[in-house]
């Protein structure tokens, strides 16, 4: 894909010095508060290559800024879509813009683009019925027109014009005089007097002056000039463009109220940081209409942008037919466009795509090019770009080119430079007032110097500007360092043509997020900054508005407030329309191709649906509190009503962006239904909950039919989670399997999507796996397992299609005794395995055995139990094709039985259960809109059918006597009515567990006297009546100092889930060892338990004992990988053993020590199981710790071994087919022991060998379920275990 660019201006070292000196002189002539910033920005603009950034500091600051941006954007857009936005302008920054005190309190609106300085000053002045307009002799016509428009809209009934002579007397009480024009436009004594009067009336500041400001700069002063209410406004530019820009600021300063309009007391000194700022129409697809392009020019002028590059990909007269003259009608359109551009101080640029067809040496093509440029100049085009992005380094369009230039990158650069020189000599020389000529090179997105770029830099005339798009065609970020490097590589002034928000490569998306990911150095280092718009011109204005704000003042740019202002601007100041646009923009904010992105790859302010995320989290964590439910539902309501609101606002957005607004509205209605469904479920309103669920499922099916993308990675997962909770509430889907990954999560592709039953969704890691990384599931209890299937890759059409574990081993565990290998896999996207008969397991995982460059995506991780009897369904009426009667027992609420005809009286639908069991409730879910009268019966073993109640339309929930087992359930039809539609018949069994309790891991490491460790469990109600009970932790008797904090009483509705924080602590004095702890949930006489092994170890400190030790081994693979490498302090050397399970490596310490910690740094060939052994003499060995589930990488093993002279890593089982390989081993003594190793003088620890952790297991992240309140702390009395520590229970 390629896109088009345009023009700018840079400087060499001599010019840089002159500009810096000029900046210093200029700054002394303007407002004092602007002086330092002007000097700094001139230096940054022309000398950005002189100072290299500090990477570490920049990264830290960047992370803080990204975190701040995410919170701010969520607050800003969230406030707008829930109807809490404020006035048209954003709230002023403290100390910069404040309130005034004239006819009542008046807040100074924030101007956009954000001025270099904007300060509240003096008192506000009312806009009277008659206003005097004093125009400088050569005042800019566009500025005058804008000022008249502003005054009329503010309530002025008449605007009288006057000369700029100095007034002879004081102005009349309550009058308002507006001065338009600066010295360059012939402003005289009246303007100067007004500036002095405003300065004097407001305080002691010197009068403002535009003298010495950069091109396009201006000053604006407003307020009272006396105590009688008379006032003045002065708009004075350093040039006509500056005065025009001042008029655009004035548009935003009027404050309307019940008693008329006022202008606040304010002082503005302002100028653009980037000299050339604007928009490119460079997308592929149908170009904008002439009316749309004219409107765009007006928008550019209003937002102080001064350049428009016409370069649509599908205009043949600028590409394949570039030699031809435009037809008369299109010439007239371009002429009108040029007139509109001139009125708005916008330079009209034109891009000619020559690379695909030009013959460089052809005199005919050369003349055709000159004729084309002359014709365009006659139409009013004043800037030109020659585009060579389609040129080939191996193919010419005529033999003469090959004969003259040869082939290769440098040859193409010479040919292009010669053609550019011809244009400069024979065209540009005749038009000295034209903007600088620019070139879009063949290598416009590469990084750094190349043979082509070097040759181009050497041959191009110094006046020519060179365009680039950043590093990459559509980069998510552009840094100042990259901009500097590009400028150095091209050796010419740089035009940054940013391919955001253009969407032609992903036409299903709108890119409406704010302009982010561009450091200030991009603006200061570019002679021009152009952003490539979408095919949708109105929607494009949201990101284009923010880009204009950034380019004008990058150091003061606030993406969040700019984004908010952009939506208000497009909405014409109408709050409801602004809220609707904010909802569309907030759910179309990510620049990632499919709306999702790995963590950290897009700026946080551009994360999709950022404003909804905290609302969804509050709703889940609070389990649907009234406040959380109301807030989330209000946000969805704004989405649902957005098309109607924007249609009534007549903004034009509805017609242009109808498909996206329609999809947004369906998501809004689905979100409303989901909130209602979950709220009714939690309050026990079954019929209402089921009705909402039916609506939700219909809306979700409708969403899948759309071709556009909205809210990717957020809205669908929320609805999916809601339906999963609904399935659990209905008694289908179980919800007992918990998935996990040792890797991070890319956006919202969380591990739960491995077990959601939807092959279209998938877990996606945020980085490639390292050796030992795993994906896996917890079945909740030890169960028989017959087979395992793991489907990887994100699907054929997904960006994650080829992301899977290329080398892996499948393993299972019961939670005791380590992991058991099933099979090894290589380059298999789908892993299947049949386990030996009688296998039982609780945990299953797929573990990486090698590193790779791609991430990992898992669509489904499923297991099957040994064959057992299942329910069967018979009777009728017969189901329609595709809707068989068996669907009522398939456990899937998305399917249904639909009868072909109404039933006859006495017809029955019978479900025979696989096993007779006691039942306490039966649930029948039918279509709420279909009425088929009947009743429900159950068949008792050895008895007769018993009627338990009548069928209701939609939701039927009936109690059953649990004392006698039931083997059948049937629906008996009364006859007549409609053809029945039944989604599911759900028996709730009395002998089923009340709840499921799951923990993310079965072991906890605790440092004696150290920080507590929180293990976050998951409790889910499984019974028909929910689960209410208590949580307790049972500790071994006699253990002193070990405590476990558990939540208080728990009450869960049916299908409800709760996050259980379990806080483990080992106080000072706790004896080291391994202690079994049982976590117990008791409800209704039933108990659910989970076992946790708590490993208590002493604190360690001091130097690394291994550095002074002597290494030895059972054998080295080769002399290149000796045992001595494990303690040589070098990160790139390693020991490697022969391929034997029982290989070992050991360290002999310089003197005996009490050792408490070993840190092992594994290479890819690591140990799946091993022991840490110690010895006082090297002959008799004691096992200090056993690791049963080695994962490779950096592993820390804790133990307490006194009087140690030797420490050995004794291999038990290799994880790969190779031997064991270690980069290094670190050893640390127990704190407070007197024996230490021989002191060794070394440099700081090498990179790659991290400082050993203080101990403990990091707290598990929130699962999205509500958190139980704090409860009691379990404690026990002392006893000292005799066994050594045993590490390795599955996590």
TrEMBL record:
Domain F5/8 type C: 724-865, 1089-1230
Compositionally skewed regions (Low complexity) per UniProt: 1256-1282
One Pfam assignment: NAGidase
Lyase among keywords: no
Keyword Isomerase: no
Entry superkingdom: Bacteria
Keywords: Glycosidase, Hydrolase
SUPFAM superfamilies recorded: (Trans)glycosidases, beta-N-acetylhexosaminidase-like domain, Galactose-binding domain-like, Hyaluronidase post-catalytic domain-like
Residue ranges annotated for the GH84 domain, each copy included: 275-555
Biased composition (Pro residues): 1242-1255
Positions annotated as active site in the UniProt record: 390 (proton donor)
Region (Disordered): 1-27, 1239-1291
Stated family: Belongs to the glycosyl hydrolase 84 family.
Protein name: Beta-N-acetylglucosaminidase domain-containing protein
Organism: Streptacidiphilus alkalitolerans
